[in-house]
C-alpha cells in the first residue's frame, strides 16, 4: 500500500474519483496476451462462428492466478470488471455479473470502455434507441420505450439529426460482414446496459455529480494555480501542531474505545441491515425508542458529546436533570443549538426568547453563568446573530459535562436504563432466507412524514415539559390538576367565576394558557397569547375547577412570602397574576380577601415541580428587589396596558414595544 | 436552389460522420490495422472538406437578411443538423486520437483487444468516400505523423466550431423537428440481400432474428416455389404438345 504525498493534491478532499478504471485497463491488456492471457474460444452461433469468446471460469482462474487471490475475491474482481463494462456477457446480457461456469463473455472494444473523461451523451443514446427501433421494427422494451419518448420530448430540436444519423449508422453497419455486425450489435447493447441500466439495476459507473474540472487532466500553470499553491502552503505552515505522541495516543484510545461499536470492524447486532436486508437493527436504534440497546447505552458513557448527540441519550439526561432540578441548563443548551441551526428569519425572536427565559434577571429558568460571560452575551444580544450565545452555551456545556454528567453516570436513572437495555441476539440466516429478505425489502417512511412526526413530537414535548423554577417568582401560579405536589385539593374554585368577568373585560390579560417555559415553546406561547383572551378562557377552564387564579397578590401574602422565603427554598409562588389592570382593580377587591386563606396551604403544597400557568403578559419581578408600594404604583401607572414580563436591556428605550 | 444543395451536402456529411463513428469503434480491437488507420485519415479529410463547404454555404444563407421567415426556420433547422454532426465528429476525432495513442500499431508486441471483430472495414470506408473500392497507400506513419496530423485537425475543427458559434446567431432549442417519433421506421430499410439468411445476434435472441430472417426467406421460397411450378407447368405443356405433335 503506497502512501501518497497529499500535500500537493488539492483535489483530495472533494469527491472520490474512479481511479480503478486506469488500473482495470492495464489488467485488460494483460488478459489479451496470446500466451499468458485468457484462453479464448470461438462462439458457435447458428450459421457463423465468432471468435474470441471467453468462459467465466477461465476468467476467474486467470485472475486468481495472476493476483494470487482466492476464488471469492476473484469473483468479486471479475464481477467488477463486468459491471464496469470491460467484459460483457453473451447470454443473459442484462445481469452484469461473472458466473463461474461455462457461460461466455467477450471483451469490449476500447471505444466503449467506461471513462469519466468522455461523458455519456443523451444524443448518442437517442441514436442508439432509434437504431434499435429500426432493427426491432418498432418493438422496444418498456424502459427503452419510455426513454425514447422522453428523449423525443426533450431533444426535439435535434430529432431530425438523430433520425438521420440513426439511419446512416444502420446502413453503414450493414456494410460489414455478418459476424462483425453481430459483434457490433452486442457491443453497443452491452455499452448501453452499463450506462443506461434497465430499471431495477444500478450502473457501476454512477459516480455522482460531475466535478468542475477533470482530476486526471493536467492543470495548466496559470498564476492563479500558483497562487492557490501558495495559499495552501501558507495555511499549512500556520496550522497548529500537536506532538505525535499525543495525537497517536488519542488515536489509539479512540480506536480501542470505538472498536466494538464499528459495524465494519466488529459484529453488528443483530445483523447488519445492508448485508442481510433485515432492518431490526435500525428499528432497535430509532431516535425515540423506549428501550435502547446495550451498545447504545455504553456509547453514552464514552463522552458527554456522545450522550448529547444521541436523542435517546439526551432524553435520559433530561429526565435525570429534571429529578435534580437543573433542567434549565440542558434546555438552554438546546435553545442555543436551535438558534445556531435555525432559520435566519426566526433568529432575532429566538434570541430574545432565550434571553427572557434563561438569562435575564428574574427569568423563570435562570441559568448560572459567570458575570463576564453574561456581560459579553448581553452586549452581543444587542445585535443578535447566530453565534451570539456561543460563550454562554460553552460555559453551560462545560458545567454540565464536569458536574452533571458524572453524577448522571452514577445516578439511578442511568442505572435503570442500563439494566433495562436490550442486547439482541445475532441473526443467522441461510442463503435462502437471505434471498427472501432481499425480496421483502420495503422503502422506509418518506422524509416528509418523518419531519412531520419529529415536529409533532417536539411540540408535544414542549407542551409537557416541566418548569423547574430556581428562583422565586411571585407571579407564577400552579395549575392544580397538573401539579405534582401533595395534598392540596382545595383549590379556589371560587376564583373561577369572579375571574371570568374579570377576564372577559380585560384585553390586557390574556387567558391563562397552559404553557411551559421551555424556550421552544416560548414562541408558541406568544402565538397563543396573540389569540386573545376570550378564546383561551374556555380551554383553560375546562381542565378542572379553577383555572389559574388570576387575582392579584394581596399585600399580606407578599409580606408573608418575603418573610418566609429563603433563597434556598424553592417554591412556586402563588398567584400573582396580574396586579395590574389597575382600571379593574375595583373588581379585584372582592377576590382578594379569599387570597390570604388560600395562600399558605398552597405555598406549602407547591414544593415539587409543577406545571405553571403564566399569562405571557404578566410582569415578573424577582422577589427580593421590589417593594410592595413600588409595585402598586407601577401597576397603577401601567394601567391595563400589556406590560412586558422582562425588559430586555436593548429594548429599554421602547418599553411599550408591543409584545416584546 | 440553395436549400437543395445544402440538404445534399448535409446528407453527405451525415453519412461520413456515421461511417467515421463505425471506424473509430473498430480502433484498438483486433480488426484494427494499418488500413483502418488510413481509412480513418481519409474519412476525416473528407469530413472536413464537407464541413467547410457546408459551413460557408450555411453561414452565407443565414447571414442573408432578406429571406422569408419559413426559409429562415428551415435554414436554422439545417444549421442545427450541421452543428450536431460537427459535435459528433469532433468527439469522435478526439477519441480516435486517444485510442490511437493507447494502441500503437508499429510496436513489436501489440495487444489489441480481442473483441471478436476480425473483418475489415473497407466497405464502410468505401461508403464514406463514395467510391467503389478503396486503394491504400503502402506505408504511412500511423503512429507518429498520423497522430500529429490528427491533433492539428482537431484544433482546426474546434476553431471552426467556435467561429460558427460567434458568427451565426441561431438558438438551437428553438428549432422544431420535422420528423416525429418513430420516423426512422418509415423509410425502406431492408432492401438488398443482406437480410436474407438466418443468423441470430446472440444466442438468446434466435427467435426474433429467425422470424425476421424467416419472413424474408419465406418470401424467397415462395418465389422459388412459384418459379418452379411455372417451369414444371411449361414443361408439362411442352411435353404434351410434343407428344401430341408426334
From TrEMBL, chain A:
SMART domains: DEP, G_gamma, GGL, RGS. It is found in: Membrane. PROSITE patterns: DEP, RGS. Keywords: Membrane, Sensory transduction, Signal transduction inhibitor, Vision. GO terms for biological process: G protein-coupled receptor signaling pathway; intracellular signal transduction; negative regulation of signal transduction; regulation of G protein-coupled receptor signaling pathway; visual perception. The keyword DNA repair does not apply. GO terms for molecular function: GTPase activator activity. Residues 582-602 are annotated as: Disordered. Residues 303-418 form the RGS domain. Residues 582-597 have a biased composition (Polar residues). It comes from the Eukaryota. It is a peripheral membrane protein. Its main location: membrane. GO terms for cellular component: cytoplasm; neuron projection; plasma membrane. Residues 34-109 form the DEP domain. Gene3D superfamilies: 1.10.1240.60, Regulator of G-protein Signalling 4, domain 2, Transducin (heterotrimeric G protein), gamma chain, Winged helix-like DNA-binding domain superfamily/Winged helix DNA-binding domain. This is Regulator of G-protein signaling 9. It comes from Scophthalmus maximus (Turbot). The gene is LOC118288000.
Automatic annotation (TrEMBL), chain B:
It comes from the Eukaryota. The chain crosses the membrane at residues 219-243. Keywords: Membrane, Signal transduction inhibitor, Transmembrane, Transmembrane helix. InterPro entries: RGS7BP/RGS9BP (IPR026512). GO terms for biological process: negative regulation of signal transduction. Belongs to the RGS7BP/RGS9BP family. This is Regulator of G-protein signaling 9-binding protein.
